[in-house]
TrEMBL record:
<comment type="function">
    <text>Has a glutathione-disulfide oxidoreductase activity in the presence of NADPH and glutathione reductase. Reduces low molecular weight disulfides and proteins.</text>
</comment>
<protein>
    <recommendedName>
        <fullName>Glutaredoxin</fullName>
    </recommendedName>
</protein>
<keyword id="KW-0249">Electron transport</keyword>
<keyword id="KW-0813">Transport</keyword>
<keyword id="KW-0676">Redox-active center</keyword>
<dbReference type="InterPro" id="IPR014025">
    <property type="entry name" value="Glutaredoxin_subgr"/>
</dbReference>
<dbReference type="GO" id="GO:0015038">
    <property type="term" value="F:glutathione disulfide oxidoreductase activity"/>
</dbReference>
<dbReference type="InterPro" id="IPR036249">
    <property type="entry name" value="Thioredoxin-like_sf"/>
</dbReference>
<keyword id="KW-0963">Cytoplasm</keyword>
<dbReference type="GO" id="GO:0045454">
    <property type="term" value="P:cell redox homeostasis"/>
</dbReference>
<dbReference type="InterPro" id="IPR011900">
    <property type="entry name" value="GRX_bact"/>
</dbReference>
<keyword id="KW-1015">Disulfide bond</keyword>
<dbReference type="GO" id="GO:0005737">
    <property type="term" value="C:cytoplasm"/>
</dbReference>
<dbReference type="InterPro" id="IPR002109">
    <property type="entry name" value="Glutaredoxin"/>
</dbReference>
<feature type="domain" description="Glutaredoxin">
    <location>
        <begin position="7"/>
        <end position="66"/>
    </location>
</feature>
<dbReference type="InterPro" id="IPR011767">
    <property type="entry name" value="GLR_AS"/>
</dbReference>
<dbReference type="Pfam" id="PF00462">
    <property type="entry name" value="Glutaredoxin"/>
</dbReference>
Length: 88
């Protein structure tokens, strides 16, 4: 099995898409670093610079910007997410 790249997810509280993204990664057994932009406001600027987006969640696998939950779910449906996570 390939080594799993670092997964970083920028989130905020009370965000259903953030919850779904965390659940999907957890269900796959993938460890991830969660950065709560509502608790660490300075990280919002970092997220926006890295992603070019202002909404949460923003998900990165290694240096690859996946996008938000809908983007990650689309990759999963297409069978492309597991290989990116080193699971296939």
């Amino acid at each position: 099995m390939a080594e799993t790249p670092a997964v970083v997810i920028y989130t905020s509280g009370f965000c259903p898409y953030c919850m779904w993204a965390r659940r999907m990664l957890s269900d796959k057994g993938v460890a991830f670093e969660e950065i709560r932009v509502d608790r660490e406001p300075s990280q919002r600027a970092v997220m926006e610079q890295r992603s070019g987006r202002t909404s949460v969640p923003q998900i990165f696998i290694g240096e690859f910007h996946v996008g938000g939950y809908d983007d990650m779910a689309a990759l999963d449906r297409a069978g492309r997410l597991d290989p990116m996570l080193g699971l296939a």
